[in-house]
Amino acid sequence: MSTEPSSNVLRIAIIGGGPAGLGAAIALSRLPNVKITLYEKARELREVGAGINIGYNCWKVLELLGAAEEVRGHAAQNVLHRNAISGEIRSERPAQSSLPPKYRSHRVRRTRLQSALISKVPQGIIQLNRRLVSLHDELHGVRLIFEDGDETIADLVLGGDGIRSVVRLSLFPDHVTKFTGTTIWRTLVPAKLCSDIPNLVPETSWWHGPAGHCYFSLVDDPSEFSDSNNSSEQMLEISCRYLTDPALDTERRFSWGIPATNERVTVHFKDYDPRPRESLSRVPEGNWKEFSAFAGPRLDRLIGWGKVALLGDSSHPLTGAFGSGAAFAMEDGWILAQAIEYTTNRRLSTDQGTKAQNIADALEIFNEIRSPYYRRMYEHIDNQKAKTLQARAKAESESSDPTHIFEGALQARLDSFTAVGEMDWIYRNDIGLVWQDYLRREKLEDSGIDLTASNL
Ligand SMILES: Cc1cc2nc3c(=O)[nH]c(=O)nc-3n(C[C@H](O)[C@H](O)[C@H](O)COP(=O)(O)OP(=O)(O)OC[C@H]3O[C@@H](n4cnc5c(N)ncnc54)[C@H](O)[C@@H]3O)c2cc1C
């Protein structure tokens, strides 16, 4: 990337090759007069972490990015929630709704999502082995400094560098993320490894215990496998979570997947029903990856210096709290691209303002749309935590029996799943419609209509 102040070409540096960075690269590369470089610290773009849920909101943004077709996975009919200790089914929800099949929830291999996105990023944009270490606000752009000592200048920097973002740290040095107490272990194993264990394959099931859960789901579309080998190559995702008191935790924690031994995982689930226990014992040694959940407070603004924006996990450090973070990450990049196109066209049509002002205006639009969305998520999490604590306190006041207390907390957790219809603002979000709505409101405001006084 050139270090000279350029004329018309907008120099965009994207940090990170996850869903946020790749989605932004695809959406922005459709704009004229842009020079995009995506810097990724890894030596190769390799996704770890088993499966990922792709729901309506994610399909919608994948469509807009032109990457939906390549993403295929398992569409569960029912999702079972069990008491992990007794094995009892506590709720059974039909996973599929009245939505057309292509928009229904699918569990897919994370590598599939990543390959689909990479295939849509124009050649020559991605630079690997490029770890950003700091950013500096300059008169004509942002200076980026890399670990290898190299530097460059960009007009616009997009931080898609994940939960422990260097870009966020440069903008907001006082913002800190901390280990939440939740450790997650994930793996993919051949489904046939567990197919003789009752009630595990092909069901999608959650086994909820007193301090965590195990989750089982297929991740492949069976129609992709030839008749001859039928479902023998299908993979099963196993994902387990365990919660400890973060104040008592003294270990060094990693937000990305590091190898974990079988013993390290299974020790937390020894009191579970024999079915999940048996399946965990069959995971080949060396297959588990461990993730520690980090989270930090909400950011008031997702932008800074008039030329830097945070996308995806860097903009709302919550570690997969809604199981939809990939969609949020891609929505961020897509909206930002629309905002840049909009302010650029506005500047060209009025022949007013500078390129720098144009970027700053686009970032404000991005912030105006996305910041309230993330505020709502933080509020929801706070409400949910309060409900769980209330349920536990109620159960504790009724009896000191640990089984009774566990049942109370379990019911609160199950209620949070069954309340999924109340979460349409997330899971039925259509980012294309969000943008159209923004434009409609802008038009009305321009024509002098007071939006606060009406029900628009
Ligand atoms: C256990 C778990 C389960 C989840 N389940 C789901 C799910 O079912 N559905 C869903 O949609 N989401 C899920 N999520 C969330 C989802 O994985 C994230 O929200 C999503 O990956 C965020 O994308 P991102 O691009 O913002 O960040 P990331 O995917 O973290 O990508 C960040 C990229 O930036 C690179 N990078 C970091 N620092 C630097 C640097 N200094 N210089 C250069 N490059 C850098 C990293 O190497 C990485 O490639 C889950 C998350 C977890 C932890």
TrEMBL record:
Its cofactor is FAD. The keyword Oxidoreductase applies. Gene3D superfamilies: FAD/NAD(P)-binding domain. Residues 12-181 form the FAD-binding domain. It comes from the Eukaryota. GO terms for molecular function: FAD binding; monooxygenase activity. InterPro entries: FAD-bd (IPR002938), FAD-dep_Monooxygenase_BioMet (IPR050493), FAD/NAD-bd_sf (IPR036188). Keywords: FAD, Flavoprotein, Monooxygenase, Oxidoreductase. Belongs to the paxM FAD-dependent monooxygenase family. This is FAD-binding monooxygenase. It comes from Talaromyces proteolyticus.
